[in-house]
Amino acid sequence: MEEDFLVKTPSGLYCKYGNFYIDAILPVENVLITHAHGDHARPHNQNIYCTTPTKNIMELRFKKNAGKIFNEIKYHQEFKMGEVLISFLPAGHILGSAMIKMTFNSSIYLFTGDYKLQEDATCESIEFCKADVLITETTFANPDTKHPNPSDEIEKLNKIESNILLGVYGLGKAQRITQLINKICPQKNIQLHYSIYPIHQLYENKGYHLGNYQHYDRKLMKTSKTNQVYLVPPLTFNAYHKAIGVVKIFASGWDNLQKGNDEKLYISDHVDWDDIIETIKKVSPKKVWTIHGDGKHLKSYFSNNLEVKIL
To answer: In terms of Cα–Cα distance, which of 135, 144, 147 is closest to 301?
Structure first.
């Protein structure tokens, strides 16, 4: 195992043994992209390696600036960059999200990207592999953080007859919420912000049927006083902070995004503490490296029997 297999640079995490970056922050020559969220997939890179859905979403969002050359990688397909053998595994985060399995000098490194263990009918289920080094995101790596069952959270909406202004992230969360509402609250009519609708259509084209939804209808929201659910991205949600006649809710795992709303809806597309511990058990790594969050709790928890390094 090489301690410098992945190093932080101004452009992002870099592997010199394969001459590639992972989820580069700045435009680079070679980049592996785990999924299409904007903090991981950025425009203007030269050679991009990602799943086909990630490519499709990037092209939808960035148009001609998405990147120069896309190398579409199927799950489990092996390819080599420099001295590193690489393959993608489903991460369970959003449509097309991938964990990256990398083999170098007989050691296996598993880079999770963003991932979740909870069931989600709108993306591929997570798949694990054994690895010598697990490089895990730690967004919610706190023993006090426990994500509730998403179905139980959505059930709360059945107790609300008034129209709902529901803040969601447009990619992944919006599609998951739409599918869950259709399943658990079939009496609700889902209306979509104009920026979210095309992503729903992309999901449908990939074979993920989300149920009923429509474009936002301002007249319908005003004349129908009950059971309308308007899904909007964060900026729009914040702009409507003085809106009347609607129940304001934001779907997130973050406590701070629940404050000031009319109801709390804890639905996250990331692993919580118990999920990370379960992942470590399944992967059985000799070392754990942490990114995207705070790894201090994991470092303390495993201080006697597993090396944890915060990248």
So the answer is: 144
